[in-house]
Amino acid sequence: MSLAKIKHIVLVLSGKGGVGKSSVTTQLALSLSLSGHSVGVLDVDLTGPSMPRMFNIEDAKVTQAPGGWLPVSVHPANPQAGIGELRCMSLGFLLRGRGDAVVWRGPKKTVMIRQFLTDVLWGEMDYLLIDTPPGTSDEHISLAEALLKDALPGQVAGAVVVTTPQAVATADVRKELNFCAKTSIPVVGVIENMAGFVCPNCAECTNIFGKGGGQVMADDFNVRFLGGVPIDPQFVMLVETGRRPSYPEGTIINGQDFPKAQETGHVDSGAQETKDASLLADKYRSCSLEPIFKKITQDIVSAIG
Ligand SMILES: Nc1ncnc2c1ncn2[C@@H]1O[C@H](COP(=O)(O)OP(=O)(O)OP(=O)(O)O)[C@@H](O)[C@H]1O
Ligand code: SF4
């Protein structure tokens, strides 16, 4: 099995679309890699594969080697800088055009998911993050069955469930947590995304959708609450244009002063700055969400052991 040399497999789930599951997967991957772990990201959201866009590697091609597909490199390891390598495999690389969509029926999707689990040559990796489609579809059941059948004991560390402050009040997230219970996939924890908004004018974080629902729900289900992540327009800018985030002086996020990106020594070359995948992790260091994900990944790493 191509997953044999992966230490920990983590699924990223969300009750419904658009809550930021792929953004969370991206940031977990960057954060784990910035703390020295080698990370693979497998995008099995077959109807809307977004990881190539998130990592700014949309034009990359997957190479077919004798034993299977070689995942695309987002960046190599840099041991001097304490950065682990990051690789990605997605159906998006196999589609011909950026706007192409997959309109397969269930059985074909099941076959593709199985192939992704068996035919990608990951090699040795500390973490494999699997970005799943929203909801609890047949694809999730196929994925859970295939993983639990083929994975080594203890290799499937569990699921990170992503929600938003509004979604915690709905049945979707609860369905997701019930799905984990039924399929015997442990819940690593819940992340509440879009918990507040970082104003680009004054950099103050305002909890426009309320706060604390994720914590309450995690308590109800007796699972870990990993933290709240505000909406930061600078993160969207980083993904969409590849430009390094830069904040006004005195940025306050989650009640704390955010260290000024300008002080980290970068020179913001604005529009001249081009999309460069090798610099994504470096630019992410200047994002207000980076310290939040650093703390979340530390909690995940210590929970998984
Ligand atoms: N914390 C955040 N701050 C700023 N923008 C965010 C945040 N979380 C998500 N977004 C943005 O919201 C949009 C939807 O996010 P994303 O694609 O991650 O959602 P998803 O749940 O994976 O959606 P899908 O239904 O396609 O699987 C993206 O443009 C993303 O950049
Ligand atoms: S948070 Fe402050 S600067 Fe931002 S829009 Fe509101 S009032 Fe204006």
From TrEMBL:
It comes from the Eukaryota. GO terms for cellular component: cytosol. [4Fe-4S] cluster binds at C199, C202. InterPro entries: Mrp-like_CS, Mrp/NBP35_ATP-bd, NUBP2/Cfd1_eukaryotes, P-loop_NTPase, YlxH/NBP35. It is found in: Cytoplasm. The keyword NAD does not apply. The keyword RNA-binding does not apply. GO terms for molecular function: 4 iron, 4 sulfur cluster binding; ATP binding; ATP-dependent FeS chaperone activity; metal ion binding. Gene3D superfamilies: P-loop containing nucleotide triphosphate hydrolases. ATP binds at G15, K16, G17, G18, V19, G20, K21, S22. CDD domains: Mrp_NBP35. Keywords: 4Fe-4S, ATP-binding, Cytoplasm, Iron, Iron-sulfur, Metal-binding, Nucleotide-binding. SUPFAM superfamilies: P-loop containing nucleoside triphosphate hydrolases (SSF52540). One of its GO terms (biological process) is iron-sulfur cluster assembly. Pfam families: ParA (PF10609). Component of the cytosolic iron-sulfur (Fe/S) protein assembly (CIA) machinery. Required for maturation of extramitochondrial Fe-S proteins. The NBP35-CFD1 heterotetramer forms a Fe-S scaffold complex, mediating the de novo assembly of an Fe-S cluster and its transfer to target apoproteins. Belongs to the Mrp/NBP35 ATP-binding proteins family. NUBP2/CFD1 subfamily. This is Uu.00g087280.m01.CDS01. The lineage of its organism: Eukaryota, Fungi, Dikarya, Ascomycota, Pezizomycotina.
